[in-house]
Amino acid sequence: MQAVYGVLAAFTAAGLVRRIDPANSPALFECRVGDNHHHILCVSCGELKDVDCVIGAAPCLAPSDTSGFTVYAAEVTFTGLCEPCNKQLALEDSAE
After folding, report:
1. Does residue 74 or residue 49 have the better pLDDT?
2. In this predicted structure, what is the pLDDT of residue 56?
3. How many Cβ atoms from other residues are within 10 Å of residue 90's Cβ?
4. Model confidence, pTM
5. What's the DSSP call for residue 16?
């Protein structure tokens, strides 16, 4: 198992994969690395989907104060319920 994490760390360092760290979830890795896109995460089932930039060109969001930093990217994760989980919740609510 350690070898797998070592390879993923090397791939991330080489820019071949992107590591995503959603709150309350294990780290995820994806191959879409050439742009600054965001993610939407279902808080019920854990489904994660890519979402293109919110406003346009990277970094998509500009902080009100950069504190002297040069910003290259912004990471945004939207959370909510996916369509199947929404339907399941509606069914459960109607059964009550």
Report:
1. 49
2. 59
3. 10
4. 0.72
5. S
